[in-house]
């Protein structure tokens, strides 16, 4: 696709609605099952939503992929993170040899990890990293816009394309992840603008920042928003001025998943900010997006609330990479197993059930 505003608008225009009739039918099927009405709670909603997306009353999750957008952030020069781009490179490379945490958790949950270099500072030759580098890290948003509008659109469109390419290869259920030192600074800046909340409310310690570092991080975000003046009504402007290539790429993944009719799961804080940006850009992508856990970053819950989503898991995690999202894969499979295997009241012959029929 062309990496333009018009091409993006065309993809958004083509997002289909989930099939409402199939969703209603799935709820009717649940109500026939040998269990108290509604007693599987949100697992029942998961199956109905998946059925509506796939267009079948017998949904299954199929091949699962974790898309990890890896990128560096120029703002790290301001001392807002505990480490630097070397860690982005190392952890992303570890994803190709099953050493990264997300690789371990993805393996146990039956998913394959796809690390995408959308803007790492270093060039890597690790086989297994998808090279879609737009630039070698962003500019320092404290001094200038993190990226141009063209670069931002290229990152969003790259996310859309990655989903399309993986769907071609048979992947039909996605988790989102990211790797990029400094990306809790950019995510907090974007959250501050999109939620219209002061930086001190939405900024945390990221990957283990000191108290002194946290004050500097809040000051840096405040100044960047003041100086760059991102327009909250223009999401591409916000992502470009105070966001990052990873956040923009993930926003594209959420839009792409909706366009190509596949479910996609949010991970932690950075991923949820990308989902919020995607939904503000394209409200029709919302039904294709599922929450997983609630990041321990202070704005983790706020961003999910703005999306109207309640996380399934509260585990105090703040690792990123897609780790919380792949954990939720198990929950989706559990919901489908229950739906497919619980017999209907008509088929069970237990006297104790008779009065419930
Ligand atoms: O996803 C989260 O909720 C999350 C919260 C804090 C940190 N992280 C991870 O830590 C890195 C960003 O932290 P920082 O302090 O460098 O901005 C990045 O690689 C993220 O994957 C992730
Ligand atoms: C080791 C390490 C692993 C990570 N994974 C995601 N962000 C990270 C940050 C660090 C520092």
From TrEMBL:
Catalysed reaction, written as an equation: 5,6-dimethylbenzimidazole + nicotinate beta-D-ribonucleotide = alpha-ribazole 5'-phosphate + nicotinate + H(+)
Keyword field: Cobalamin biosynthesis, Glycosyltransferase, Transferase
Catalytic residues (positions): 321 (proton acceptor)
EC main group: transferase
Coiled-coil residues: none
Keyword Repressor: no
Keyword Transferase: yes
GO molecular function, one term: nicotinate-nucleotide-dimethylbenzimidazole phosphoribosyltransferase activity
UniProt xrefs under CDD domains: DMB-PRT_CobT
EC number(s) recorded for this UniProt protein: 2.4.2.21
Pfam families on file: DBI_PRT
InterPro entries: Nict_dMeBzImd_PRibTrfase, Nict_dMeBzImd_PRibTrfase_bact, Nict_dMeBzImd_PRibTrfase_N, Nict_dMeBzImd_PRibTrfase_sf
Gene Ontology BP, a term: cobalamin biosynthetic process
Superkingdom classification of source: Bacteria
Pathway participation: Nucleoside biosynthesis; alpha-ribazole biosynthesis; alpha-ribazole from 5,6-dimethylbenzimidazole: step 1/2
HAMAP family linked to this entry: CobT
Cross-referenced PANTHER family: NICOTINATE-NUCLEOTIDE--DIMETHYLBENZIMIDAZOLE PHOSPHORIBOSYLTRANSFERASE (PTHR43463)
NCBIfam families in alphabetical order: cobT_DBIPRT, PRK00105.1
Family label: Belongs to the CobT family.
Biological role: Catalyzes the synthesis of alpha-ribazole-5'-phosphate from nicotinate mononucleotide (NAMN) and 5,6-dimethylbenzimidazole (DMB).
Protein name: Nicotinate-nucleotide--dimethylbenzimidazole phosphoribosyltransferase
Lineage: Bacteria, Bacillati, Bacillota, Clostridia, Lachnospirales
């Amino acid at each position: 696709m062309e990496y333009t505003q018009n091409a993006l608008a065309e993809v958004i225009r083509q997002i289909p609605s989930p099939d409402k009739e199939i969703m209603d039918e799935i709820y009717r099927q649940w109500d026939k099952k040998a269990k108290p009405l509604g007693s599987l709670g949100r697992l029942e909603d998961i199956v109905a939503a998946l059925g509506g997306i796939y267009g079948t009353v017998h949904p299954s999750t199929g091949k699962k992929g974790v898309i990890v957008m890896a990128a560096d952030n120029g703002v790290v020069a301001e001392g807002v993170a505990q480490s630097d781009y070397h860690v982005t490179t190392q952890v992303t490379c570890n994803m190709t040899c099953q050493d990264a945490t997300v690789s371990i958790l993805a393996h146990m949950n039956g998913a394959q990890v796809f690390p995408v270099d959308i803007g790492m500072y270093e060039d890597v030759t690790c086989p297994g990293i998808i090279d879609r580098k737009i630039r070698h890290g962003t500019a320092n948003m404290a001094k200038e816009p993190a990226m141009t509008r063209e670069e931002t659109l290229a990152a969003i469109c790259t996310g859309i394309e990655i989903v399309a390419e993986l769907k071609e290869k048979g992947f039909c259920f996605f988790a989102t992840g990211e790797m990029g030192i400094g990306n809790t600074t950019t995510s907090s800046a974007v959250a501050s603008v999109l939620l219209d909340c002061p930086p001190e409310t939405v900024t945390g310690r990221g990957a283990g920042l000191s108290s002194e570092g946290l004050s500097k991080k809040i000051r840096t975000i405040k100044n960047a928003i003041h100086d760059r003046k991102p327009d909250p009504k223009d999401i591409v402007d916000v992502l470009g001025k105070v966001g990052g290539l990873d956040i923009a790429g993930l926003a594209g993944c959420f839009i792409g998943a909706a366009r190509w009719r596949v479910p996609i799961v949010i991970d932690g804080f950075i991923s949820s900010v990308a989902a919020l940006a995607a939904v503000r850009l394209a409200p029709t992508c919302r039904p294709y997006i599922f929450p997983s856990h609630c990041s321990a970053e202070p704005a983790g819950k706020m961003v999910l609330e703005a999306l109207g989503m309640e996380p399934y898991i509260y585990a105090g995690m703040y690792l990123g990479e897609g780790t919380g999202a792949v954990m939720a894969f198990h929950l989706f499979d559990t919901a489908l197993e229950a739906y497919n295997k619980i017999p209907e009241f008509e088929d069970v012959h237990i006297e104790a059930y008779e009065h419930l029929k």
